[in-house]
User: Which sequence fits this backbone?
């Protein structure tokens, strides 16, 4: 081979290398892009599945593991600890709350400052979605705050009827729970004239004779509010109509003082004693007279003669 031929061969090889070489980095870049895309698809698949699971759109028992739930929480910006769990509930982050529960968080952990569970706090705010998630996750509906209020009582305190209805639907709810001042759910409903809710409670095991810190019962409160229907419902369950509060007041005295004649008649028919006196020696007829309910005072004086 002549020197001219060898030179031409070398030149041809160089030209071929120059035309092939640019493809190598392109191939490497394509492979990198493909791998990155697979990672992205995998991550989005995990997130979508997690979102579906923790929002209740998928069977969490089959698709969610504790470790997967913790990973979801990490991606959502939460640490797996009590404080973060309570924070997620306060934020109304239902998906995070579900993830915490799926990861094994105790739903009844208490806030270090207020001493309240996430469920009681949700009841205070009226956050029904979070409250439902917590109940579904095993939260104890009967845990009480330092002031004695459970989630139902706290919902009623703040007039959050949606959460109250959710709590009443729980068959294991302690209906006789009392706040520090002795108030029960039945007392609150009786005072507010909430007939449907009072009826619902009376169909279950509820103690009609419990007294609050002032000595009043649900019957006292119903007679104060003047709701004849609730008074009738209560009397149909045979409470003691003669319980006296701390100043000696009876339901009959309340009915007499306000001039609720039908309520007074219902109480007398149920065995209320018109001769009982309060700490000042005043009877029901005396209270009617004080408040210028003269016709009712006469009815009560006649009832006194029959006792």
Assistant:
């Amino acid at each position: 081979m002549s020197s001219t031929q060898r030179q031409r061969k070398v030149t041809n090889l160089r030209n071929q290398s120059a035309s092939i070489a640019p493809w190598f980095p392109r191939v490497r870049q394509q492979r990198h892009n493909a791998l990155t895309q697979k990672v992205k698809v995998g991550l989005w698949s995990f997130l979508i599945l997690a979102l579906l699971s923790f929002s209740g759109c998928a069977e969490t028992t089959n698709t969610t593991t504790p470790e997967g739930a913790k990973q979801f929480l990490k991606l959502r910006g939460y640490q797996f600890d009590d404080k973060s769990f309570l924070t997620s509930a306060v934020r109304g982050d239902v998906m995070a709350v579900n993830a915490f529960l799926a990861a094994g968080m105790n739903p009844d952990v208490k806030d270090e400052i207020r001493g309240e569970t996430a469920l009681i706090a949700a009841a205070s705010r009226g956050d029904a979605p979070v409250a439902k998630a917590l109940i579904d996750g095993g939260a104890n509906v009967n845990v009480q705050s330092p002031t004695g209020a459970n989630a139902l009582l706290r919902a009623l305190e703040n007039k959050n009827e949606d959460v109250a209805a959710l709590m009443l639907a729980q068959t294991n709810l302690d209906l006789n729970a009392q706040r520090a001042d002795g108030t029960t759910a039945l007392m609150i409903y009786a005072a507010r004239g909430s007939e449907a809710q009072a009826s619902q409670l009376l169909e279950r095991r509820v103690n009609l004779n419990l007294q609050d810190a002032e000595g009043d019962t649900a019957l006292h409160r119903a007679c104060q509010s003047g709701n004849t229907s609730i008074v009738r419902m209560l009397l149909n369950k045979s409470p003691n109509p003669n319980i006296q509060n701390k100043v000696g007041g009876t339901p009959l005295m309340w009915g007499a003082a306000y001039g609720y004649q039908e309520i007074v008649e219902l109480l007398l028919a149920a065995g209320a004693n018109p001769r009982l006196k309060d700490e000042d020696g005043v009877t029901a007829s005396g209270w009617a007279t004080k408040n210028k309910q003269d016709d009712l005072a006469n009815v009560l004086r006649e009832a006194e003669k029959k006792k």
